[in-house]
Amino acid sequence: MIKYKNFKIQVCENVYAPAEDTFLLADNLKVKEGDEVLEIGTGTGLVAIVAAEKGNVTATDINPYAIECAVKNAKINNANIRILQGDLFEPVKGEKFDIILFNTPYLPSSNEDLTGEIIDKAWDGGEDGRTIIDRFLKNVKNHLKKGGRIQIVQSSLSNIEKTIEKLRNMGFHAEITASERFFYEEIVVITGELP
């Protein structure tokens, strides 16, 4: 069990445990009162639980163990969250949100790095670290309301500038709103806002 602010979060087997990247996003959320919120890749549910203090939250994950874990943690913290299993936007087809949150799988990886376990999905970004990030960016606008926002976590190992450039080309006002430096990488929160 870990504590974050007033929340208690159960860490579960086969689920990405909250780490520096999780806390960086949780500490810098831009959720407004009454927002319709989508969190992709919820893991233990920590970010979704924090977001649920202000917004109506839907949380998704491809990992069935993460779904079970997030349901448990939502109960422990009396958070009212809709939790759905599926890949990226599949579980919310046709729905639109005010803000979409995603701690992306951003680590460059090759087959030798992978264990073959479901937990790989939490960090496996493919060869350049961008496989999931680029799939997310391709569809994110279809799920945002007018004036919608996104907040994603990314690493300097997977070309932050490219993500910001792509977002700007899609019409977002995009910038880094939080960052933390580690010995081999920088982790950032990129916030994008549609006009």
From TrEMBL:
GO terms for biological process: methylation. Residues 22-167 form the Methyltransferase small domain. InterPro entries: Euk-Arch_PrmC-MTase (IPR052190), PrmC-related (IPR004557), SAM-dependent_MTases_sf (IPR029063), Small_mtfrase_dom (IPR007848). It comes from the Archaea. GO terms for molecular function: protein methyltransferase activity; S-adenosylmethionine-dependent methyltransferase activity. NCBIfam families: hemK_rel_arch, PRK14968.1-3. This is Methyltransferase. It comes from Methanothermobacter tenebrarum.
